[in-house]
Design a protein that fits this description.
- This protein is of the alpha+beta class and 98 residues long.
- The protein has two helices and five strands.
- The chain is 10% helix and 23% strand.
Length: 98
């Protein structure tokens, strides 16, 4: 039995052309960890993590956190709406096709 491939329509409900723009990455050097992107995402694509002085990602429980930033934690959950990029004050996200 062959695997069935699901193809999403590339039009909106009223027939206008639409192409998903999926969240691919967040630049931890630029992100300020404000959480605006997290708040508008209803799919839990991102999570807040700590960054050490050396730039290593660590748990928020770690004692050596220098700052907090957003990370793409579940990229497969992204539906490509790009709402997160529209609210980001630092333009630190990269979006693209699947």
């Amino acid at each position: 039995m062959e695997a069935m491939e699901t193809v999403l329509p590339t039009v909106s409900r009223d027939g206008r052309a639409w192409e998903p723009s999926y969240l691919l990455s967040i630049d931890a050097r630029i992100c300020i960890g404000c959480g605006r992107c997290f708040k508008v995402c209803g799919r839990s694509v991102m999570s807040l993590q700590g960054i050490t002085e050396d730039g290593d990602a660590v748990s928020l429980d770690d004692d050596e956190i220098e700052r907090k930033v957003m990370f793409v934690s579940d990229p497969g959950a992204c539906i490509g709406c790009a709402a997160c990029s529209r609210v980001c004050p630092k333009n630190c996200q990269t979006h693209g096709s699947a």
